[in-house]
Design goal:
The chain has 737 residues and is α+β, with helices and mostly antiparallel strands. Among the domains are: 2-37 and 108-153 and 644-735, no CATH class; 39-102, no CATH class; 163-259, PDZ domain (Pdz3 Domain, Roll); 262-373, no CATH class. The chain is built from 17 helices and 38 strands. Strands 24, 25, 26, 27, 28 and 29 form a 6-stranded antiparallel beta sheet that branches. A 5-stranded antiparallel beta sheet has the order 6-10-9-7-8, with helices on one face. A 4-stranded antiparallel beta sheet has the order 18-17-19-20, with helices on one face. A hairpin with a 2-residue loop joins β7 and β8. α2 runs antiparallel to α5. The longest helix is centred in the C-terminal third of the chain and has 32 residues, at 704-735. Mean pLDDT is 84; it is low at 1-5.
Length: 737
């Protein structure tokens, strides 16, 4: 419900929309005046009149008609041009209306909603030549396009920041993870890759990547060019082919990558401060205290890799703004802060490593970070009925799910807490992520009974599920709890989940969900870190010989009596080698950082800015039409559409990103307004233009019967679309969907 809590942002966006509508209608108005057509009213907004102004009458609350009638005995609309001149009043009433959903210019003899309201007066719409009427009808769209170009030119002259087109992480099992290398060699994109072009079109921002994926033809491969830093530190060009796949979280086609992060700690809303501070402190990144004064960390500036073997201690500077490299150029560091942290954690091999930060006051401090152990990436085989399931764990054992964060405004902000461990969802004990998704999908827009472990005690709760099948929390693995979720009993032989299958090491044990591992080969286990360490020790000799191993494990059943027993796990050679290939990762998550940004700018060159403005406008026009095409093809769901409420909601969040991003956003909306108004539908400009083309060819206008029927169809289509998007928008606001 943030749209209701940030009234200033909403007001700014509504004013911005008002300007776009005003410019659109001003185009119609100026063209009509040029064509000699009488304009009776100019309205911004729809519905009841809030206030109006007419020359000779002045400003009035509501319409100026009552004042006109009181003085002259009839409204201005019934007066001839001579009467208007004699009475000293203007022909046009300028009005502001209650609903900021559009606007219109009413011309004599032209009414979109009543085609029969024609006039044979000298200055009526019908009496103007067809070619002039075509100019009048298209003038609004033309003004919106020129406004968009002007706004884009302005933003490029000043410069506007966007998320950089750099891969921060690759979703396991995604199309990007299995991307086919055009030149041969290792498949898959990797963190730190900078995407430079898709299907030959330059890529300047991360949004370009997302749009290209969403707009791809279903089943067609994208050709993606990247710059990658090789083992020698040189930037090299690589080309991959990727077939986007529908992302269940967004409902759009995607290639499965996340954006790279900078070293700047993200802005935190006041209501999330307590959770954020707890997350930072748990990673060893709490504020610096001088007496009682707190000086929080603001940005990570250096990652210090410890010496290892023949390699000396290495200080890696963190990139705060993306600077693209050319092929063959030597690059000192990866642009992804998470990759720098991961590489340092791997090199530290479990030992703490140093990082350097600046604080809010500008002080420089050093903090040690303790690496966390990497777990196995496990993928179930793809079947006719089920997609591959991807999770992390050990030998088929999977950690329970923990609530890491409850964002402000979540549908369960009064129900769930950070640290809750999920023990049961509906009738599923110890659900894995895929099982939890299935449970929530069967309870959309309703409630689901769950059991969580809170403060060491099982707690029964009823959680709300939004219409998208989500409970509005950020989750992660409960690595501090040695209990297991339901085991993964069959694993794919390849990470893509498409080639073959084999039983997991624990499949034969038939362990119950929520089974607790107490020891491995006699070594006590208190969490997943000690579990992994004990498995490494127990299989060390087998790994050296390249053989499988049998390991004993003490387990505790999730029964009232908590019976304990000892089982033997037969670990295959491949699993032994896979465990010993596991490394270490950073304890710092990407969630604390702002995205790595790039700046789109003409560097003060007005010619370059104009060229960029025209190109961006053309791109947005094409993308709007492509979106409509993909909706009809089914690769973009109609639930992705946003109506006025949704656009205001989105715009209110855009305002927080700064003035230039707001101007860019309004330029995009101006293009969309132009394209949608030019669709060949009744009651919008594109439909009226079709009528005029027909009249020009045949010498007569379409029959009133046809126009009335088309108007009813147009109203039905647009009204249904409005109600559908309005419902979607409101549900997003109230349910977090």
């Amino acid at each position: 419900m943030e749209i209701l809590t940030n009234g200033w942002n909403v007001l700014v966006i509504l004013l911005g929309f008002g300007v776009l509508i005003f410019i659109h209608e001003l185009g119609h108005f100026m063209a009509a005046r040029w064509a000699g057509i009488r304009c009776e009213s100019f309205s911004v907004g729809m519905g009841p009149v809030l206030g109006a102004w007419r020359s000779g009458i002045g400003w009035r609350a509501g319409s100026t008609d009552p004042a006109t009638i009181a003085r002259f005995g009839k409204p201005a609309i019934e007066m001839t041009d001579e009467e208007l001149a004699r009475n000293g009043i203007g022909e046009t009433e300028w009005s502001l209306r209650a609903l900021p959903l559009g606007g219109y210019v009413r011309m004599l003899g032209q009414d979109d909603l009543d085609p029969a309201k024609v006039s044979e007066a000298r200055r009526s719409f019908q009496r103007a030549p067809v070619w002039k009427r075509m100019i009048v009808v298209t003038a609004g769209v033309t003004c919106n396009l020129f406004l968009a170009i002007a706004l884009f030119v302005f933003t490029f002259m000043v410069g506007v920041r966007f998320e950089a087109p750099v891969v921060g992480s690759v979703v396991p099992g995604s199309p990007a993870s299995a991307a086919e290398a055009a030149e041969g060699g290792m498949a898959g994109l990797k963190a730190g890759d900078a995407i430079t072009a898709i299907d030959g079109e330059p890529v300047l921002t991360f949004a370009d990547i997302q749009i290209a994926g969403a707009m791809a033809r279903p089943g067609d491969a994208l050709t993606i060019d990247v710059q990658r830093v090789d083992e020698t530190g040189l930037a090299v060009a690589r080309t991959f082919r990727i077939v986007p796949r529908k992302d269940p979280a967004t409902g759009l086609l995607a290639i499965g990558i996340e954006p790279a992060m900078s070293g700047v700690i993200g802005a935190v809303r006041g209501e999330e401060r307590e959770i954020f501070d707890s997350t930072m402190s748990s990673a060893g990144l709490g504020p610096v205290f001088t007496g009682t004064k707190s000086d929080p960390l603001r940005s990570l500036t250096e990652v210090i890799e410890p010496a290892a073997g023949n390699r000396a201690r290495d200080v890696r500077s963190v990139m705060q703004q993306y600077l693209p490299a050319s092929s063959g150029e030597r690059v000192s560091n990866s642009p992804s802060v998470m990759m720098l942290l991961s590489e340092a954690a791997e090199r530290a091999a479990g030992a703490p490593f140093d990082t350097q930060w600046t604080t809010a006051s500008g002080a420089i401090v050093t903090r040690k970070l303790q690496p966390v152990p990497e777990l196995q990436l496990m993928v179930t085989p793809t079947t006719v009925d089920n997609d591959a399931e991807i999770d992390k764990g050990l030998l088929g054992l999977v950690p329970l799910i923990r609530v890491d964060r409850v964002p402000a405004g979540s549908v369960n902000d009064a129900t769930l807490r950070a640290g809750d461990v999920l023990l049961r969802a509906a009738d599923v004990d110890g659900p894995r992520l895929s099982q939890l998704r299935a449970v929530l999908a069967s309870h959309t827009s309703g409630n689901v009974d769950i059991v969580v472990l809170r403060d060491g005690e099982p707690t029964r709760l009823t959680a709300r599920v939004d219409r998208s099948g989500r409970i509005g929390v950020v989750i992660g693995p409960a690595l501090n709890n040695p209990a297991t979720a339901g085991t993964m009993n069959r694993l794919a032989t390849e990470a893509t989940g498409t080639d073959g299958a084999r039983p997991s090491a624990v499949a034969a044990l038939q362990l119950l969900p929520r089974t607790v591992v107490r020891s491995v080969a006699g070594t006590p286990v208190t969490d997943w870190t000690t579990m992994r360490a004990a498995l490494l020790v127990a299989t060390k000799d087998a790994a050296a010989r390249g053989e499988g191993a049998s390991v004993t494990m003490d387990i505790e059943a999730p029964t009232p009596a908590h019976e304990r027993s000892q089982v033997v796990i037969a670990i295959a050679k491949d699993d032994v080698l896979a465990i010993h290939a596991l490394g270490w990762d950073s304890p710092v998550t990407a969630a604390i950082f702002d995205p790595l940004m790039t700046r789109l700018t003409a560097n003060g060159n007005p010619i370059t800015a104009v060229r960029m403005g025209f190109h961006q406008t053309k791109t947005m026009v094409v993308m709007t039409y492509l979106t409509l095409d993909r909706i009809f093809r089914g690769s973009v769901g109609v639930e992705q559409l946003r109506g006025p409420v949704g656009i205001v909601h989105l715009g209110s969040r855009v305002v927080d990103r700064g003035v230039m991003y707001l101007v860019f956003f309004l330029a995009m909306i101006s293009v969309n307004l132009a394209v949608l108004n030019f669709l060949p539908l009744p009651i919008v400009d594109g439909g009226l233009l079709l009528y005029l083309i027909y009249e020009h060819i045949t010498g007569r206008a379409p029959s009133l019967k046809f126009q009335n029927a088309a108007t009813m169809v147009g109203l039905l289509l647009l009204g249904s679309l409005f109600l559908f998007t309005f419902y979607n928008d409101v549900m997003r606001l109230f349910t977090g969907g």
